Amino acid sequence: MTSLAQRALRALDRFNTAHPWDHNAHYHRWLLRQLPQRLGSALDVGCGSGDLARLLATRADEVQGIDADPVIIRRAQQLTPPAAPVTFTAADALTGLPRDSYDVITCVATLHHLPFTEALGVFRRHLAPGGTLVVVGLFRAQDPVDHLLGAVASPLNAATGWLRNKGRRAPRPASMTARTRPAEMLFADIADGARDVLPGARLRRRLFWRYTLVWRRPFAS
Q1: Which of 45, 70, 159, 187 has a Cα-to-Cα distance from 11 of 20 to 30 A?
Q2: Sheet of 202-206: strands edge to edge?
Q3: CA gap 42, 9 in Å, rounded
Q4: DSSP assigned state of 84
């Protein structure tokens, strides 16, 4: 990479730091479109400050959000109106799910923190027949398609941050302050592993360094 390209990338990184926005929340409306208009129970795994759980509450009779971080759970509770049908619990996603069965399970930017196939197996067991699992996850770029999407996303990321913040420097959104780590799995390995555990799962690479997975549990399984 030339020194000019390196300087451009550093400048873009500084700009993005000054104008942050929540890449995960960008997919929340898309996520809602994958779900029925009304549903009984929903679980949001890795709920963070609770933005998605509160959106799910506009469709569900009951929503439970879990996160391993008790500090962010307290923040989610503070941000949630008392009348909302949402509860938040500090719990382990593999062993601490609050109930046996849910009509919907969502997991946004959390699966790469967990043992991949083990977590999908847990979600499958806790999904009611006919229920829907929706994942928005991170993967490690490797092949030309990954790098092309990254190249397209970089200027869009900067433009979106600028427009959302109306050109001003902005604080980091509350939902982005939780600890994170880079994704390690390649998209091809994610797709292969997911389809072994969830036959028929639909996976797609997405902009802003994300992929999506949608799986509906058959009534007979």
Answers
A1: 187
A2: 86-90, 60-67, 39-45, 102-108, 127-137, 210-216, 202-206
A3: 40
A4: S
Burial class of residue 135, CB neighbours in 10 A (0-12, 13-18, 19+): buried
Spans in the chain with pLDDT lower than 50:
1, 4-6, 8-21, 146-147, 149-165, 167-168, 170, 172-173, 176-177
Strands (E) located in the chain: 39-45, 60-67, 86-90, 102-108, 127-137, 202-206, 210-216
Residues 39, 59: Cα–Cα separation, whole Å: 6
CB-based contacts of 118: which residues, under 8 Å, 6+ apart?
94
Question: CA 211, CA 205: separation in Å to the nearest integer?
Answer: 4
Give the span between the Cα atoms of 190 and 138, in whole angstroms: 10
**Token pair 């020194």 is at which residue?**
3
Domains of the chain listed by start with CATH number: 1-221 (3.40.50.150)
Of 16, 6, 1, 11, nearest in space to 153 by CA: 16
Joined together, the tokens standing for residue 132 give 């829907």
